[in-house]
Amino acid sequence: MPDNGYIAVLVLVAAAITWLLRALPFAGLAPMRHSVLVKYLGLHMPLGVMVMLVIYTLRPGAVAGGLDLLWLVIAVVVTAGLHWWRGHALLSILVGTAVYVALMSVW
């Protein structure tokens, strides 16, 4: 069984590495906070990520065609309309998903 000094050194090394790995991104971002590129990405990336997620989610249904495409369009319209009306993302996602699952399971 290892002695207490050896275990203490292991714990200190693990703690130091953990602390450095958590602090390193903040230290690297500090000089770039006022960068034009970082501001541009911060402004445009959320929209780009959402567009990619929508395309990734809707592509299989659009490729399938037929009734699957119709149910997908109905669910997207319900989701978008509810979000536009209420402005509550969680509610619109849950209701849109429920509409899609109900339409897929009934027909």
Automatic annotation (TrEMBL):
Pfam families: AzlD. It comes from the Bacteria. InterPro entries: Brnchd-chn_aa_trnsp_AzlD (IPR008407). Keywords: Membrane, Transmembrane, Transmembrane helix. The chain crosses the membrane at residues 6-24, 36-56, 62-82, 89-106. Signal peptide: none annotated. This is AzlD domain-containing protein. The lineage of its organism: Bacteria, Bacillati, Actinomycetota, Actinomycetes, Mycobacteriales.
